[in-house]
């Protein structure tokens, strides 16, 4: 099995995906081991000397002025975990949990947190032996990091809480026993080192951004199929136009669509049937491209955050100094993930408008709702309703979470990011958008089937059409449609359409 080695500096988004979804195992580099040991030695020195350092020899939050003795250090860290495990709601899916654990381990491996090596190794062993803490989705303010959900991550580590082992939910103690992993008795600084950070919001947002990249490629494929169905005008994609407004996402989208449509006998040139297309076809490079550029910005932020130290206090071994700062504050990612949600929502918005053009006979020239026997059959009438409902829900979800803040810890923590809510909303928006695109794939292939003349599809659209038709048959009379939507959506979830089209036309951007 392939392994990802972490050192706190070189983790990539692809590494996260490999560990989260492909069950790659995790290991520490030799350099990381040494850094962790040195930081821990300095923490032990601070405790032995009785120095006043937040979270090491003091309480937490509003209790930062309460001194903690050396004898109370273990109780302090255990109490921190069990008291902070206040998450609510359904549990995060396993891929997100694996990503959370990996990101936390990577931050600790950087050597600025003061955790013991054996504690970090136990967390990594849990990843490798499939012990996944049950982490509720809700309850984080995104500062001081993701305290509540990360506390749930730590519970099984200390033999508490609940965890999945080999896919079965059980007590954390039982999961550790069955896996052969010994629980840890936390000592000074360790509880705080494990839960004070942005790893939950970053894990959710990073996986969503990765999926959004592929959805944007698929959206270029789906609009290409709709162009085939509606005899779309390709002049609007001419690279000369986009060179005059050189946003990279816009340029890439126009290039993608022309490559996908290469060889098509169904698309038209301006003036052949009509002079201009509606915006949902003509302005696709500008619309899709803007979302691509937004996601590029988010990915740049993700690349920084996944190798950042978001702990508090920070241990600077070389300077023999501990600094209590605010790297746990999620604002840099909260803004980015709000932007991510908005960018994905727009892809669904324009896709739904294309679906409407496909099913509306006044706009398409095709049979109403793409059914051969309108009246007796409803065809795609309610499929468009579903898409409209999803995009409307997205508009509510796209309201920024980061503009809100509620003071906590007796106003000691008087501004918080709500970044975890921003990431979770972006994930839900992504899900809705992927189902809208799934409906467009179905509607466009259905519309293509009304063409009686033998006109070739483009090089890429033919491949995409065939992939859809492998799982969804042409609709000749009404049937249970949600099953078709689920089958079409599965092609998005497994990325099979993008993979198949890229195999023919080259990489999409």
TrEMBL record:
One of its GO terms (molecular function) is histidine ammonia-lyase activity. Gene3D superfamilies: Fumarase/aspartase (Central domain) (1.20.200.10), Fumarase/aspartase (N-terminal domain) (1.10.275.10). It comes from the Bacteria. Contains an active site 4-methylidene-imidazol-5-one (MIO), which is formed autocatalytically by cyclization and dehydration of residues Ala-Ser-Gly. Pfam families: Lyase_aromatic. The keyword Lipid metabolism does not apply. Keywords: Cytoplasm, Histidine metabolism, Lyase. Its main location: cytoplasm. There is a cross-link at residues 143-145 (5-imidazolinone (Ala-Gly)). Its EC number is 4.3.1.3. The modification 2,3-didehydroalanine (Ser) is found at residue 144. One of its GO terms (cellular component) is cytoplasm. InterPro entries: Aromatic_Lyase, Fumarase/histidase_N, HutH, L-Aspartase-like, Phe/His_NH3-lyase_AS. Belongs to the PAL/histidase family. This is Histidine ammonia-lyase. It comes from Marinisporobacter balticus.
């Amino acid at each position: 099995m392939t392994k990802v080695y972490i050192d706190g500096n070189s983790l990539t988004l692809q590494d996260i995906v490999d560990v989260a979804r492909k069950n790659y195992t995790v290991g520490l580099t030799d350099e990381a081991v040494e850094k962790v040991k040195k930081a821990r030695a300095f923490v032990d020195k601070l405790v032995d000397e009785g120095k006043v350092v937040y979270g090491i020899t003091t309480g937490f939050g509003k209790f930062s002025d309460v001194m903690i003795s050396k004898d109370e250090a273990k109780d302090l860290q255990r109490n921190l975990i069990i008291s902070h495990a206040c998450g609510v709601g359904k549990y995060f899916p396993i891929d997100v949990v694996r990503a959370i654990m990996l990101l936390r381990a990577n931050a600790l491996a950087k050597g600025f947190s003061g955790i013991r090596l054996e504690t970090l190794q136990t967390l990594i062993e849990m990843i490798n032996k499939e012990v996944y803490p049950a982490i509720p989705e809700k309850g984080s303010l995104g500062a001081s990091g993701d305290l509540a959900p990360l506390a749930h991550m730590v519970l099984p580590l200390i033999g508490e809480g609940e965890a999945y082992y080999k896919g079965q939910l059980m007590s954390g103690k039982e999961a550790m026993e069955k896996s052969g992993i010994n629980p840890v008795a936390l000592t000074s600084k360790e509880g705080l080192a494990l839960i004070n950070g942005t790893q939950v919001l970053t894990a959710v947002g990073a996986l969503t951004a990765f999926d959004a990249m592929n959805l944007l490629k698929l959206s270029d494929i789906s609009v290409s199929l709709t162009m085939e169905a509606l005899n779309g005008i390709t002049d609007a994609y001419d690279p000369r136009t986009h060179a005059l407004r050189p946003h990279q996402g816009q340029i890439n989208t126009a290039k993608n669509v022309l490559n996908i449509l290469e060889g098509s006998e169904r698309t038209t040139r301006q003036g052949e049937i009509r002079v201009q297309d509606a915006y949902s076809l003509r302005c696709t490079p500008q619309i899709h491209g803007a979302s691509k550029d937004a996601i590029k910005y988010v990915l740049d932020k993700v690349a920084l955050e996944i190798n950042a130290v978001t702990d508090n206090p920070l241990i600077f071994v070389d300077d023999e100094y501990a600094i209590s700062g605010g790297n746990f504050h999620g604002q840099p990612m909260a803004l980015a993930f709000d932007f991510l949600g908005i960018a994905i929502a727009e892809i669904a918005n324009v896709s739904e408008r294309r679906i409407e053009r496909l099913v509306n006979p006044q706009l398409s020239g095709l049979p109403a709702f793409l059914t051969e026997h309108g009246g007796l059959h409803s065809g795609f009438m309610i499929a468009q309703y579903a898409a409209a409902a999803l995009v409307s829900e997205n508009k509510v979800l796209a309201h920024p979470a980061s503009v809100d803040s509620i003071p906590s810890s007796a106003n000691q923590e008087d501004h918080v990011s709500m970044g975890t809510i921003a990431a979770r909303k972006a994930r839900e928006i992504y899900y809705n958008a992927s189902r809208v695109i799934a409906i467009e794939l179905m509607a466009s292939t259905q519309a293509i089937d009304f063409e009686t003349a033998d006109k070739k599809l483009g090089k890429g659209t033919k491949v995409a059409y065939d992939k859809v038709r492998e799982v969804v048959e042409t609709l000749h009379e009404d049937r249970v449609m949600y099953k078709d939507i689920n089958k079409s959506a599965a092609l998005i979830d497994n990325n099979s359409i993008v993979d198949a089209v890229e195999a023919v036309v080259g990489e999409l951007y």
